[in-house]
Amino acid sequence: MRLRLLLGGLALALAMGGPAFAADNVKIGFITKFPVPFFATMENAAKAYAAANPGVEIVFAQGASATDIEGQIAHIESMVTNGVQGIAITPVDPTVAAALDRAIAQGVKVVLMDNNIPDWKGRTALATTNNYNAGKIAGEYLKTVLKSGDTLGILEGVPGVPSLDDRVNGMLEGLQGVDVKIVGRGATNCTEELGISVAEDLLTANPDLKAIYAACGPPAAGAARAITNAGIANDKIVLVGFDFCCGEAEALTAGVEDASVAQFPSKMAELGVDALVKAIRGEQVESLIDSGAALVTKDNMANFQ
Length: 305
Prior knowledge:
Blueprint: H1 2-16, E1 26-32, H2 37-52, E2 56-62, H3 69-81, E3 86-89, H4 97-105, E4 109-113, E5 125-128, H5 131-145, E6 151-156, H6 162-174, E7 181-187, H7 192-205, E8 211-214, H8 217-229, E9 238-242, H9 248-254, E10 259-263, H10 265-280, E11 288-290, E12 293-296
Parallel strand pairs: 1-2, 1-3, 3-4, 4-5, 5-11, 6-7, 6-8, 8-9, 9-10
Antiparallel strand pairs: 10-12
Helix pairs in contact: 2-10, 5-6, 7-8
């Protein structure tokens, strides 16, 4: 009788999917693009999720730069070899899709974070800022401080990366209604060094430049340095960034940068990891998860730090 009761209890517990059983343990990989505070924040949020959810093991990896395609592919392959059941990844470029397809063929589920891979059908979910709508926030702000005839220079991220292109295209839509002249745009690979260089070229070629928009945080900080180095007064040029990271807080405090669009990387990582864990455990998840965005200025920046 005692044996039948014990076996019956065990069967019931298994049917209920109790967290104490090894079947519920999940091992996932978490891969981000490159070393900047934004992705460090995402990693920390993922670590906090694992700490709060016993049975979830996360293996971390990161690329060396915003264009480190081969490095990210190597991380994907290594994680599959090490037996992860899922991968949460901020894809550095759409060409990593082939490596993700090979992972999926071995039973690994994939959740994309931060940016999508257009026309790729392999993802379980996408946890991201709606970068187009977030770009519109920047454009709508610029619309309030610029007038028709003013000039604008654009510091792009990595052209061809959908999320970064969306930030520029969304900004241009938000700016519609004011006839602003785009006098130059250049790729920065989301680095401060190229942000300085492209901004210097814009300022040299356009002495009366009225505004600069940077699609990533490090180039925005670079543009702030270029403006300061050129001796341009804060009220003579408008600088708007994206990400609110990597020196932008200092630039806003100094009055060189006027605004930035903040994402919520902690929320993005938490939602992405949670969707991946649920999918591995057989639960339904939303295919598109929006983590939101907001405008940051000197007046409200304390709320985003």
